[in-house]
Structure formats: structure tokens, C-alpha cells
Write a structure and sequence with these properties.
The structure holds 2 protein chains of 2 kinds. In chain A, about 70% of the residues lie in helices and about 5% in strands. Chain A is mainly α. Classes of the chains: A mainly alpha, B mainly alpha.
Chain lengths: ~650, ~325
Amino acid sequence: MLEALVYGAIAALISGTVLPLLYRSKNTRKTSFGLSLISSILLLGFAGAILYTGKEPVFPAIRYLPGLDFTLAADRLSAGFILLIAAVVPGVSIYSVEYVEHAKSESRKNLQTALTNLFILAMLMVVLAGNMVIFLIFWEIMSLSSLLLVLHDYSSEENKKAGFFYFVMTNISTAFLFVGFISLFKLTGSAEFGPLEYSASELALPFLSLFIGFGVKAGLVPFHKWLPYAHPAAPSSVSALMSGVMLKVAVYGFLRFLLSVFTPELWWGVLILTVGSLSALFGVIYALKENDIKRLLAYSSIENIGIIFTGIGLYVIFKVEGLESLALLSLAGACFHAFNHALFKSLLFLCAGSIVHATGTRNIEAFGGLVKTMPVTSALFMIGSVSIAALPPTNGFAGELLLYQAFFQSFAVTDPLLTVFLITALSSFALTGALAAALFVKLFGITCLAMPRSEKSRLAVEVQKPMLIGSAVPAALCILAGLFSKQLLSLAGWEIEFPDLLLLGLLLGLIYAALFLIIRSKETSPARISETWGCGSPTLAPYMEYSSAGFSEPLVMIFKNIYRTKIVHKAEYLDKQESLFKNGNVEIRLLRFFEEYLYIPPAQAIESFSKYVSSLQNGKLDSYVLYAFLAVIALIIATGGLV
Amino acid sequence: MNTSFLLFALLNPLFALLAAPLYMALIRKVKAYAQGRKGPRLFQVYYDLRKLMKKEAVYSPTSSWVMRFTPYLNLSTLLVCSLFVPLVFVPEPAGGLGNIIVFLYLLALERFFTALGGLDAGSAFGGMGSSRSMSLAAVIEPTMVVAFAALAFVLKSLNLHHMFALTAGTVLPISPTLVLVSISLFIILIVETGRLPVDNPATHLELTMINEAMILEQTGKNLALLELAHALKQFLLMGILINTILPVGLSTEIDAGKIAVSAILFLLKAGLLAIIIGLFESALAKMRLFRLPAFYVMAFFFSALTILIEVFA
């Protein structure tokens, strides 16, 4: 029965992929998104049933090559992440029905529809994969389909660069996964996900390579740079899927190995927690300086992935220390935050897509006053901002609350060094949370409030219904998942001491209503409309308002050691001795630390090496035969003669 | 929900709401004396609130629902917050509503909307206030969280009700480390209520104001609600500090006599604390904005020290 739901969902997604490739019409695209909507409803039933009953479905294994089976599997962990997919896809599908029509040509519209379905299918199959080979196959399909979606507007130079960057990073991720899988395969001789009994030193290599592999895909610092490039290039509905779901699929992959394959060590936990905390902190600090709405949201995804990995790190530490209940609390926090982030980040990306569509720019400094011109989008954007700023009673708060509870009780750990470490991590976690609140006051305040800062923003009109409904779905889910967080957690089988946010929300609402009614009933004089006080100047102009850069300036000053600037001189000379100056410029800009010190040096090394190697390629057949001959000889020597 | 908790849920917010404005005035009075002035009457803040309540609200044409929504939300949030902090008596535990983390994040909710309200009218003052307020709040947050974590660690609970049930009935703090946490709590009280040396509540000079700048465009009833919410916040944070370090008199039983004694004692203790705050404010000049993180680090140090001492002891 349960299996049928999955088969139905897969069939719907496959037909959603194939249909738009065959027939080029608006109705086909509608049908295709309808199919992905249906698949998500089926998946909702499937995942809900597994989480609630704890029964695991049995899938038949199909042998397609000797020793290699095509198997699917789903346990509670995968069900949790399938639930996540099923929660994000409906909003994105409804939104895309309208959004995809804004693409440049008929064929691109169809391609985008087909690829979106393929992308969803691939992500689903990664989560369902029953062994490492299947996992890798669908992992690659997921990467490639998202790459094609990032490149959908391939004519722009910026997007080409973004696509290339993403392509390289995603391949690095896969390469590390390969190393990890092969080293595990070498130990066990099996590609199944099963518990291992090996010494810590033997497992260090597989663990580290899997951590890096999944970390690159999830966007952990210092492997995060592809996110702020890929997201602005991708269509917003795809950004919502990539940030909402694909990053979580990487988290799933990591958890799959951590929970059902490895027995973790203490230093793993410390490493995961450190990298997680740093990602969270750096993500939000870089986001504060950003003025491109989609890039800002991309940095904020890095932050949230950092928070999820903070939870995973805590889980490992508590597990090793033998504090089972705290370990469970942290794991629940990490998973619940992953789910919540999927909801509010897809909401924010969908709203950003609407705003970018209506104004024609991604620059925050050009927005303003949208609360009047685009009231519904602004209200939905507000829900997303409140959620991501982790304010009660939304779902963003519920997830972070679990982690806070774990942190606050963690001082039961007796190791003094570990205590100092946990206090540091807790302070960094708190700082991240508060900076995120500042970030989203800035984003919402500058984007939606006050006077329009440009003509584009003044003339913006509200987007069409499907885009509004599409964004409203995750918005409603954000509020519901927050209010019913206690109930959801207990339905999913986590009996945790947790405040009842429903009660809190009701109390807030009731007191609000009571206050409002009492004061309204006593009202004697109506409200008056009068100009904002402008210190005596006759009219206030938009350029007098606080800008996005101005808003974050105090924090930029406080964290000025992180935002290092770099002075770049460029000069051209008329002669070779560089004495006659022709022209040049000097610029002061933010130092792109990771890019300039971590990414570009190896890239340059590879480039110069390939230049050297390419000189071997001279186009003569006889020299190629010689190379082949030398290679065979080298192989024979290396393997110790013909065995 | 038991009757004792229901009684608490009615009395505690009411007590806080009625008493909170008094201490706004008292601090002003102390500061005035320190400067050789007579200062306002003790009930001046009540008169001000009544006057504002009667006045019409004036809105900028630039502003939106955010500005109209914020005052009501802030006061409702603070009223919910007052359920978390037992002031004069600790009811029988009724679990479910929340712990100190929820309390901290309710304060963050209030701050978030105040900051948005500041941006709403399009005035540069409001923007400046929001920007500064959110920035400083971000820097103080680790200190706040670690201070409350230390409190939770010393008193072995996440719930202020349980904590104060533990401290109630003693004259002196039950653990010497609570003195250290109290130093942090005092600094947090100063920062969160926008007092010198962080913010100057008595100024309207654009270079120095933070909280005032955000509510500059608020008028009439809305301003009254915001002022009341601010007073309530100060009173609740004072309550946490008092019941941590000087819990004498705090009642754990539902008994009219005991509660009355406890209430009077609490008002006196709060008066003492208000005098200390007033003198503290008079003795200090406002710090430069970018010097403030160093001030916060001091509070952070005391909280972290508390946890370390508790771990090693």
C-alpha cells in the first residue's frame, strides 16, 4: 500500500518531466506542475504514515548488473526528509505555473518545467536510495538538472560564470563522495548502508571525505562560495527548491552515514560543531553586507545550514558523552530546523522572485514602499522574515528552541575543556540568531517599508494569483508548523519536554485582540494623517531615508576585522619599462577572503598544469600510440609484473 | 492549569502593569536629585500615560500597518512575558507555556517589531534608531543567553518558576555564584532598557538616541502603549534580578497576608534597585557607540565565569 504511493509519485514526476519535452504548450506546463503537486500529496501520505506508525515499507530489489541491485528503502530518517520535499514542492509548483511563463522563449519555458520535475524526482530518489551506487547515480542527476536550471538564462556573462562555478563545486562534492564510498566499500565489500565495526583510525578517511563531500553541497564554510553565485542566476522557483530542498538532501546524506553507518568519535562532533558554528556566523555576517536580495538569501542559507550542522555536532558530542536524551534533543533540533528552513527559505525565495519580477531589479537599495504597492507579497514576506529571525510563535523559533534547550542543559558534561567549548559555541549560536534578526529587519524594512527608493519600485504592481497562492502555501505552513510544533514533534515520535507554542500563540492573539478592542472602544478622536517630521525641510525625499548599506554600517564597524577591505591598483603604461603612465584605476573593495586565498590558488595551479600537459597533445597519431605504449609499460611496472 | 496558576496569571501581569510606571518616574527623580533638581512627581508617568491615551494618533502618509500594529503587539508580548517571571509569589508549576528561552525570544519579538516600526515612517531618525538598536542587540545577545544559561545551570532548571521556587524563602542568594550572574543581569537590565551608558532615555539629540529615535513618529495612544511596554520590560527584568539575588519575602503559598507582605517587600526592593540604577546612570556618561561591545564583554565574562565555577566546584 505504502509502496504504491511512492510508485505513484515517481510515475507522476516522470510524466511531468517527459510531457513538456513532447508537447510545447501552456497547458502541458500546467499539467506538468499539476503532476508534481499530485506527487507531493502522495509523498505526504507516504512519509506521514511511516513517521506516525514507524512501519517501514519493503521494496523489491532489481538486479541490473552482476552484484548491483536497484533498491529503494525508506526508514524514519528518509521519511522525515521526504516530508520536507512534500512540504516545499506544492508551493513551488503552484508558483511556477505563472512564474515559468516569464521565461524568454517557448522552448525555455518547457525545458524549465521538465527540468524542475526531473530535479524534484532526483532529490526524491537520493533520499529513497537503498545503496551507495543508487545514491550516487541520483545525486549526479540532481546536480546536473540543477546545473541546467542555474544556466537557464545562459546568455548573460554573469550567469555563465555562476554556472561554471557551480559545476566545479558540485563535481568536487561528488569526487569526495566517491572517495568516501570507495573507501567504505574497500572496508566492507558492500555498498549497503549498514552499521560498521571498524576502528576509529580506519573510519577517519571515509568520514572526512564524506563530511567534505556533503559539506560542499550543503554550503558549509569554506566551501560555500557557489551558493551566492548560483542563486541569483537561477530562476527564483529553482532557488527555492535548491535552497529549500537540495541543501537538505546533502544534510540527509550526511545524517544517513552518521546515524546508520558510523559510530562517531568525540573529535568528529567537535569538528562538525566548529564548522557548523563558523558557517552560521560567517553566513549571516556576509549576508549583512549584501545588497542583492537573492544573494543575501543565499548567504542566509549558509547560516541556516550552519545551524543544522551545529545541531548535528551537538548530537555527536552528547552521544559520545553518553547523554542520550540531550543527543536526541539536538538531533530533533537539527532535523526540525532543516524542515523549517525548507519552508521559510522557499517562502522567502518565492517572495523575492515576485519582487524581482515586479521591480526588475535585485538591488535592495532600489526597493522600498512595497508594502503599499505589493501588499500581499509584503505580508507573506513578513511571515518569512519573522520565521527566519526565529521569533515566537513561528516555526523558525521552534527549531532553534530545541537547540537552545540542548545547549542550556549541556553543562552536565563533566569535561572542563568541553564545557568551555560549548559555552563558546552557545555564544556564537546566540550571536548568529540576533544577527539574523538584524538582517531581516534590514531586508524587510528597506524592501517593503517607507518610501519607494526608485521609480521601478514606485510603479511595481502586485504579481498574479498563482504566484501569490504559491507563496502563501509555505507561509501558512510556517505558521502552522510553529504553532503545532509540540504536537508535530510528538506525532513524529519525539517525546521531548517542549513549550506549547499553540498556547503561547493563542495567548498573544487573545491579549492583542482584547487590547485592541478596549482601546478602540474608548476612542474619542479619529487618527490624523500628517507628514513625517523632516527637521524643517519642506519634503522628505527617498534619498534621505536610511539605506541598506547605512543600516548595516554599525555591525560592519563592529565586525570590521571580518570584512577586510583590499586596495587594488590597476595601471597601464605606454612603454615596457613602466615609466610612462597611460591610464589606471584604484579600487577599494571588500576582500573576498575565501575566494582569493582558498579557491583561486588551486585553480591557478590546475590551469598552469593543464597548460603544460596540453603541450603533449600535438595531434600526431604516432605520438599518441607511443603514449599508450608507455602507459602500458608503466602500469605493468606499477602492478609488479603481469599476474 | 491549576487554580494557583490561574490566580498568578491574573495577579502577576496586573501587578506588573500597575507598578511598572512608578519606577520609570523614580529613576528620573533620583537622577534629578543627583543633578540638583527637584524632578517630576512620583506619579508623573501615570499622568503622562493618561494624557497620551486621550490624544488622537497621528500617522505619516508614508507609514503602513506595521506602525499601527507594533504598539499593540509590543504590549501584548510584554504581558505574555509577565507570565514567565513570578514577582511576588510562585504558583504551583503548570508546565507547558515556556521557559527562559521563550522569554528571551519574546523580548526579541518586541525588539524586531519596534525596529520595523522605526523604519516605517521613512524618517532617517527612525532608521538610525532601528539600525543601532538591532546592532547593539546583536552584540549583547551572546551575553544575555550565556547569563541566562548560567542562571539555569546554577538553579538547575530552564523555567523561572522553578528557579524562583528554589530561591524563595532564603534571605541571601542560595549560591555565591548567583552574585556573579547578578552583575551580568544588572548590565543586561541597563542595556535592554536603553539606559546610560548605552542609550540616553532623556535625550532627543540625533547623535545619542537609540530607543527614542525608533518611537519618534509614534503618537497618542500608540505612544502610550509603547511607553507602557517599555516600563513593563524594565520592571520584569528588575524582577528577575531581585528574585535572583535578594529573594527575601518571595512567597510560595497562596495566602493573602503573605502575598501582601511579599508585594510590599518587592516594591521596596525594586525601589532600592531603581535608586541604584538612577545613581549608576548619574555617575556615567554615555559611551561611544563602538566602545559598547567592550562593556558587554564584561557582563559576558561574569556569566561565563559562573558556569565555569559551577562546573569545577
